[in-house]
Design goal:
170 residues; mainly alpha; three-stranded antiparallel β-sheet; 5 helices; elongated
């Protein structure tokens, strides 16, 4: 694997592991990443994905469908589909847990779940904290999926362009 592609793969994989760890910790009611760290990971994702897409677009179109240039393994395809299914399940599950609203602090000091301009319900401080943890869970879950998908795509690019082609059976 060329160095630039390997670097992109490892950055994506480490981002997925970091977000996945924070995502799993949110199920225990703990948020190990601060808002600044989460925003840094979002910015990193906006760097990683254009680079992955740029590398993907450099693969000749005939190589993408040809088995001569290395077959994308079934487990890699299954992983990509499973990640996409989890992204949707995570998003809709977390939105449903928060009654399709966002935890906000109102001008009068009350804590509430708000959907657009409508107050869904007023929360206690413990419920407000739980709603914030669900929001962090949603964000870290989505970030973990997108970083993992970037790693999957980088691996597929390597299969379709790199030395993996030499092992292909004709």
């Amino acid at each position: 694997m060329p160095f630039a592609l390997r670097l992109l793969f490892w950055i994506s994989l480490l981002g997925a592991v970091a977000c996945g760890g924070a995502h799993l910790a949110s199920f225990a009611g703990y948020t190990p990443l601060s808002l600044v760290a989460l925003l840094g990971l979002v910015l990193l994702l906006f760097i990683v994905w254009p680079l992955v897409i740029w590398r993907w677009r450099r693969v000749p179109r005939r190589n993408l469908v040809s088995e001569i240039f290395g077959n994308i393994p079934r487990w890699l395809k299954f992983t990509a589909v499973a990640l996409l299914v989890y992204a949707f399940a995570n998003y809709f599950g977390c939105r449903a847990l928060n009654a399709w609203g966002d935890p906000v602090k109102l001008d009068d000091g009350r804590l509430a779940l708000q959907a657009k301009a409508k107050i869904v319900r007023v929360l206690t401080p413990a419920e407000f904290r739980a709603a914030q943890i669900v929001q962090v869970r949603m964000l870290t879950g989505e970030l973990a999926v997108f970083f993992a998908l970037a790693a999957v795509m980088a691996h597929a690019v390597w299969i379709k362009t790199g030395p993996a082609m030499a092992n292909a059976k004709v």
